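Because discrete structure vocabularies remain unfamiliar, we first show an illustrative case, written as a sequence plus integers encoding its fold.
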Amino acid sequence: MATHKASKRTSVSTTKAAKRTVAGQRELQREIDAKDAKRKPKPESKKAVQAGARKQPGRMPAQHLAKPGRESDLALVPRFEAPDYRGSGKLEGMATIVTGADSGIGRAVAVLFAREGADVAILHLDEHEDAEETARWVKKEGRHAIVIAGDVRDSAFCKHAVDKTVKAFGRLDVLVNNAGFQLHADKLEDISDDHLQETLQTNIAGYFYMARAALPHMQAGASIVNTGSVTGLFGSPKLIDYSATKGAIHAFTKALAANLLDRGIRVNAVAPGPVWTPFNPADKPAGKVAEFGKDSAMRRPAQPEELSPAFVFLASPVTASYVNGVVLPVMGGPKG
């Protein structure tokens, strides 16, 4: 009875903390939105490049979302299903955690993990409907899903989420650190202390906390896959703090990979270019969103289903047993 009451108090506490985080993020967003009112989008240039199994959207809607951003609110639904991808048991019987799995890259990864035979714990902040939709897709693939809401900036929540996952699935084999916060600023002086701390604590401390909580439950053959970014490789003038955290994630990946080598636990990262998810419409003004991804090599953003196979590759001991400490760029190629 005491354990049940303690668990209930933890659940209520994490829900309240998540709501406070959402309110804080929206306040930061309002400050930046006020500085964007007079900016105009650039004129359209060349056509988008197509190189995949099916044609992907090349034009993004001019849309701005309130943070943290819900996939169900997007005018153009991101493609996460990967209908041409055939599973072959690369993660058969494994238990996995994906943070930020309510939408975007996280949802696409959760679906392919399930297609490869894994059960998935879907961690998210406050996007309950989106998270439940991800869970429905995981179950549609014939695997078990649990949904856990909370803030990865809170180390106690991270431990709670890992413990709940292990209790539900009996083990933990793969952790995907994917939750993130991004908010642009024209100048370094526009990044307030609160803005900076939101980015740092979500994007790097959250990865650290999740890995630290997960490792006691992971055995040889397990793996951690972190979501880095093209901005961590090349920087971005309007995403100074975000770029810094993504560079830190790349360094964290390499350092932790070396640290865990003798335990047989691999650590790698995927560094995406622009990807169509709620992340950017919940950052940029609508006019900028309409131009999103047009400055990439393929002159369009990727769809999440174009990223998720890279996570499967790095997570699976079948395909990547000798791949460790790698930051894998998936950004459509170098710009000419």
Summary: The longest strand covers residues 266-272. The beta strands are 95-99, 119-124, 145-149, 174-177, 223-227, 266-272, 327-330. The mean pLDDT is 89. DSSP finds nine helices and seven strands in the chain.
